[in-house]
Design brief:
Low-confidence stretches: none
Shape: elongated
Radius of gyration: 24 Å
Order of helices and strands: HEEEHEHEHHHEEHHH
GO molecular function, one term: DNA binding
Largest sheet: 5 strands, mixed
Helix content: 40-55%
Number of strands: 7
Structural class: alpha/beta
Strand order of the largest sheet: 1-2-3-4-5
Distance between the termini: 55 Å
InterPro entries: Restrct_endonuc-II-like (IPR011335), Restrct_endonuc_IV_Mrr (IPR007560), tRNA_endonuc-like_dom_sf (IPR011856)
GO biological process, one term: DNA restriction-modification system
Number of helices: 9
Protein name: Restriction endonuclease
Organism: Pseudomonas indica
């Protein structure tokens, strides 16, 4: 193996590691019928399921042919992997493209692989943020309006200063996630609240994650402190119901209105 080919494999492996997956190069994997040498072997989780991807790194001057696609299809089947990728520097012949069509073999340049798999990983991360927002919202609305005002979870309408309200924070977080799903950067994170965390815009996915972590942690901490004081004062009487899966959350509807998605339906 040439040094350039080795570096090509390492670059692919490092990309998957940067997404939080486990990846190793030159892996020897036992299949049902025989052992196989895999250029890059990737293991990750998506929607609670374990996934295995096999990547063949073709640092060739010529285009990948049909027989290389068929060979990888057989290896993927023997190992029981979920998907196989051939990453080529020179592209693919027509026969290779036809052989991979409508199969679990994907033909990519490195840039295409990086873009597609990053989007795949980001969608999973955004899903976990949405689940966390759902939990926080159920906790927030479980307390009466009077209780939320008394314990600092929202300002009173008669206040001249908009200090804090969980509703606006959650709606802003949801609208930001919707924008990220559409890859509409920069994302406006401006709120009228005087108590807020982070920057007013997110220019990248990482910046958005930083903002979500700061603000969801902030709300979580405020809820925890407020609920502890409610308990001490004998005011802890939350509604124990959860929003049903088929129902929309209040701040979800607000976020859709903010982003124009409510009108789309």
């Amino acid at each position: 193996m040439s040094e350039e080919w080795f570096q090509f494999q390492e670059r692919i492996k490092d990309h998957f590691v940067s997404l939080g997956a486990e990846a190793r190069t030159n892996a020897r994997i036992q299949g049902v019928r025989t052992c196989h040498d895999i250029d890059v072997y990737v293991q990750t989780r998506y929607l609670g399921e374990d996934l295995v991807w096999l990547i063949e790194a073709k640092f060739w001057k010529e285009k990948v042919k049909k027989n290389q696609v068929l060979a990888l299809r057989a290896i993927v089947d023997d190992i029981g992997a979920d998907r196989g990728f051939i990453v080529s520097m020179a592209g693919f012949q027509k026969g290779a493209i036809e052989a991979a069509d409508k199969t679990n073999i994907k033909l990519k340049t490195f840039d295409e692989l990086a873009s597609d798999t990053r989007e795949f990983a980001e969608s999973e991360i955004l899903r976990t943020y949405r689940e966390r927002i759902n939990l926080l919202e159920d906790r927030y609305w479980s307390h009466s309006k009077r209780t939320r005002i008394e314990y600092g979870l929202r300002h009173d309408v008669i206040d001249n200063v908009f200090t804090f309200t969980g509703q606006e924070l959650l709606a802003t977080a949801r609208s930001a996630i919707m924008a990220a799903e559409d890859r509409n950067y920069p994302i406006d994170l401006q709120m009228v609240l005087t108590e807020r965390k982070g920057e007013a815009t997110a220019d990248s996915f990482q910046q958005l994650c930083n903002w979500l972590n700061l603000n969801l942690n902030h709300l979580d901490e405020r809820l925890l402190n407020a609920e502890w004081r409610m308990y001490e004062n004998g005011d802890y009487r939350p509604s124990t119901g959860r929003t049903r899966a088929r129902d929309s959350y209040i701040t979800e509807l607000i976020a859709k209105a903010m982003t124009g998605k409510l009108e789309e339906k």
